[in-house]
Amino acid sequence: MRIRAFRVPRARSLIVALCLLTAAGRSDARTSNASLVLPPPQAAPEGVLLVFPFENVGAPPRLDWVGEGLEELTIQRLSTAGQQVYSHAGRLNEMDLYGIPSSAKLSRATMLHIAEELDADYIVFGNFSSDGSNLTVRARVLRTSPVTLFPVVTETGPLTSLMELHTKVTWRLLSAADHGYPLSLNEFAKLQKPLTLAAFEQYIRGLLANDDETRLRDLKEAARLEPDWPDPAFAIGQVYFQKNDCPTALPWFAKVPKAHALSVEAIFATGVCRLRMGQPDKAQEVFTALREDLQHNLVSGADLPEILNNLGVAQARQDDLAPARTAIGRAVDIDPDEDDYPFNLGLLALQQKDLPAAVTYFTEAVKRQPDNPEDHAFLIYALEKAGKKDELRAAREAAQEEFGEKGLPSLKFDSKHPESLAKYERVKLELETTSLRLELEGPLQSASAAAVTMPTDGAAAHLRQGRQQMRAGRLDVAEREFRAALASDPHNAAAHRELAEIYRRRGKLDDAVKEMQLSLAELDSASVRTALARVYLEQNKPDLARAELERAVKLAPNYPEAKELLGRLEKNKATGGAS
Fold this sequence. Notes:
- This protein is of the alpha/beta class.
- The protein has two domains: 8-304 and 431-455, ABC-type transport auxiliary lipoprotein component (Rossmann fold); 456-575, Alpha Horseshoe (Serine Threonine Protein Phosphatase 5, Tetratricopeptide repeat).
- Helix 7 (212-225) packs antiparallel against helix 8 (230-242) and helix 14 runs antiparallel to helix 15 (355-368).
- It has helices at residues 65-80, 88-97, 108-117, 162-177, 185-191, 197-208, 212-225, 230-242, 246-253, 263-276, 280-297, 305-316, 321-334, 340-351, 355-368, 373-386, 389-403, 434-439, 459-471, 475-488, 493-505, 509-522, 526-538, 542-555, 560-575, and strands at 48-51, 55-56, 84-85, 122-130, 134-144, 147-149, 153-158.
């Protein structure tokens, strides 16, 4: 994984259970002409919920899967009821950034910190116990700002009735949060998809499996037992997608129906597969349709940079270069930190033999991501071809200081055949769904759902508004929102971190350092320490940067961005190069 600029953690992109993404879609634009179908906006539930696994406090080890199972069921039940809910994957990724094992028992304070990082307004947690035949489930809701703990909800029944028992638990949680909740238990239960316990157990065991063979075996058994349940099909498609086996992945993604929360991600992965399979025309159909449907159906419209980038790549591979530059240029405007987009524009400019533009785009890519050697290599190539001797000398010196004498990759393509540049194109493999959630004026929900209105006038709401304004480039407005978040919660680590990002963008590096240090004082984080290290490098303080990266790697040993940057610093130190 290439090192990224300091930005919102990827966990926020994994909100696959949000009801606003119950937007439907095409399983493949080639085979279906049905548009995404979204119901009209209803009364908007303002609260975003984060669900944690339920702790095993007295059940046999063979039932350990129930903890994650209850988490997943809660996410599904709440989402179906119209609530905005973070996914299981989003929670796991965020915990990994803080070096928290997925199996760790979490205190309420730790849960609150994780919820703060994810801008969640409410936490759902609980525990379960069983004597092997009967099951007792206890669940609670915790509001993050101001901190308020709702009464515990307890239900007991035969283990075989887990699905029905949990439905009642979830309904009681919603009823406790809103005493005027309009649905009866029977009405709420009718909203839920009926699932057999056997299929659900296989699905959860598949998600928890440590190897692909076991994962596929369990997920396929769940799909066999519940052939009309899209979740196992999507999970199977994802396994094959990650193995780059697109011919096998596509039929599974096609099983995700238009009205399912995973539809948008399944469609996006389908488009990526079409690119991988050398079918840019079909990829263009998929990404164009997905973009148009999102723009048409969402309240404020939506342009996601990953979709625009991949659409541009598909167009470029068909030699339709002008529209490709327009699409990717829009992605550059939307995401001010990502270097892949200006890099792809640089490749397009080379194909069109527009050397001044290529220099401009590769310069922008290097500015956005100084740690990417490929960006530097192409900048040097473009400067050399453009005959810009002074700039070329400066670029070579900067690259040598950063990577050493032989630190840049050799570029292997035929300049007489521009299409040979295609192997360097950067295709986005994952869709950032956070902006979808934050750009909506209100979440979309099924016409039959009755979402609880959970007021959010605290820090989390200001953080969401601030991040939305920052993505739009309105830094002054964003700063006011982050300061309002701190006024509501003076110990909010995320607000300090976002203020640091604003100062970094403005070139106020000393102020950025102070805000990051305040953030770390409230909540230690590998991502913030890595961001702080980058600022120290900009200030030419390599020893301080190295110390922060060592702490980041110790905190989160699997955090690739910290490991990669630390490795580069150590290599430069060993070879006598500049840090």
